[in-house]
Amino acid sequence: MDLTGLNMLAGWVASGDIIMIEQMPIFGGYCGGVEETAICDVATTLASFVMFNADTHLGGPIHIRWGITTSRETLQIAAHTAAAVDANTDLLLGNQYYTLSGPCTEMCLLETAAQAITDTASGRELISGSASSKGVVRDKTSPMEARMMGEAAIATMGRDIHEVNTLLDRLVSSYEKDFSRAPAGKTFQECYDVQNITPTKEHMAVYDGAVSRLRRLGLEIA
Amino acid sequence: MAAPRPVSIFEAYDRFNRGKKVREDTWDYVTIPTNALAMKDRYDIRFDKGIIPEDEGLIDRLFLAGMDMLVTTGFYCPDIGRTMEITEEEVYEGIKKAPTRLKLGKGKDKVKMKPRRGNAPSKPVVEGGPTGAPVSEDIFLPMMQGYAQEATVDTLVSGVLSTLDGHPSTTNTPYEIMATMAEIRLVREAMARANRPGMCI
Question: With contact defined as beta carbons under 8 Å apart, do B52 and A165 qualify?
Answer without folding.
Answer: yes
